[in-house]
Design goal:
homodimer, alpha+beta, Arc Repressor Mutant, subunit A, SH3 type barrels, six-stranded antiparallel beta sheet, two-stranded antiparallel sheet, 40% helix, globular, binds manganese (II) ion, DNA-binding
DNA sequence: AAATATATTTAGACACCTCTAAATATATTT
DNA sequence: AAATATATTTAGAGGTGTCTAAATATATTT
């Protein structure tokens, strides 16, 4: 199939292409891949050769449907493995990403199908991200960033945007987790910090924090 | 740590070095790795550079203790994953090897420790091979090849030498599996074929078969 | 519109791992 | 011991994926 490197590029392009439906820039891709722009250009040409992306010089890359499909399958595997690690192997949500980055490249249809069954067909990974189904469909959850919600509202935490160990550990320390009820008491105008309450305890969080927590407003 | 290729070479050397305690020949290694002798020589030099093997031109390679340790850890991972696939994910013993070949290269101490715990510290893989412990110790089972046993004896199947899909499927078809009681009724002198009984049913097997089944004599 | 800054590509190199063909060393026959 | 066969290494090359430095294209300022 595709090489480890190719798979990682496809995934990176997919993630970057999310918001705008236009081409992903070489520089953005270089940053995501932690490599140099020139290396990206090289790889893009190879991917283009294999019809995994469409590429016009200086205009960025877009995934072809073939490329998108490959990317989604890798993301499916990544997220299923993350569920496995947390639910079955006692990993915490800040420890899984690195290992899942490796496991997502294992090639075996049967493996991933059986893993899915074994985990009882989970819909979400430990960070609240949806798990694509076998056909590549991804459920779009109605979720908003906490910093966009007005004071007075009560919400449920349904995901995180930043999935870095640092951020996740901060959340653990402050009792913020998926499913937790977050009530917004105040929003400071000048720095957009918030006073929230979780488990009947008050907590002040910066915009940096509130803009990385996904919530669903609770009726 | 080590590259995928390096790990596969280390494992191959380990397996070939088993019987004799002398160097593994370039050609033997080339065959095992399904590659060319010249490629082997190249790689051996790199492994030697990293003190993973000792190498004298024209005299073959031996694993250093560093190399042996690396090899054993990979084998530990391979066999633990095989147990996982069979016990938890409904794989049959002839399907696991290919996937385990990939999974054995995943790098995570915690993963393998938790997997071991999750599987309740298995001692054997689905083919009856011992799983090395965390320190690299490998239990030596008392086992003999079926073709070395005399007629009249009753034995238990404890392992297989050939782990190819073909052979394992043949065994499935004939109800031969780990733990099965095998009674030896006759041994034909001229072709060393055997008449055995399993589950009260008689079966004639060739030397090719009997010399790939490990058994333990039953009292 | 020209000048400047930024983004992207190209050129040339290198590490890793593989290959074929040729050279050399070791083992086996005669 | 010489001849032959086999095993191993060396030489030279290619693919993948990366890098730095230089060239070129696009975007932003003035
Ligand atoms: Mn992840
Ligand atoms: Mn995730
Ligand atoms: Mn195996
Ligand atoms: Mn096995």
């Amino acid at each position: 199939m595709y090489s480890l490197s190719e798979e990682n590029y496809l995934k990176a392009i997919f993630h970057l292409q999310k918001q705008p439906n236009q081409g992903v820039s070489t520089n953005a891709l270089a940053e995501q891949m932690e490599t140099k722009a020139s290396s990206v250009t090289d790889m893009i040409k190879r991917l283009s050769e294999k019809d995994l992306v469409s590429y016009k010089k200086y205009k960025g890359v877009k995934l072809s449907s073939k490329g998108r499909n490959a990317a989604v399958q890798i993301i499916r595997k990544h997220r299923l493995w993350e569920v496995f690690l947390v639910d079955q192997l006692n990993f915490s949500w800040d420890e899984v990403h690195e290992v899942a980055e490796q496991l997502e490249h294992i090639k075996s249809k049967k493996l991933i199908r059986e893993l899915d069954k074994f985990l009882d067909y989970p819909k979400m990974d430990p960070h609240g991200d949806p798990i694509p189904d076998e056909d590549g469909n991804i459920a779009v959850a109605e979720k908003l960033l906490l910093n966009e919600i007005n004071p007075g509202k009560t919400t449920v935490c349904v995901g995180v945007k930043d999935t870095s160990t640092h951020f996740l550990k901060y959340l653990d320390k402050n009792n913020i987790a998926l499913g937790k009820i977050i009530h917004i008491k105040e929003k400071e105008a000048f720095d957009e910090s918030m006073l929230i309450s979780i488990d009947h305890k008050e907590l002040r969080i910066s915009k940096m924090v509130s803009s990385n927590i996904y919530v669903k407003t609770k009726n």
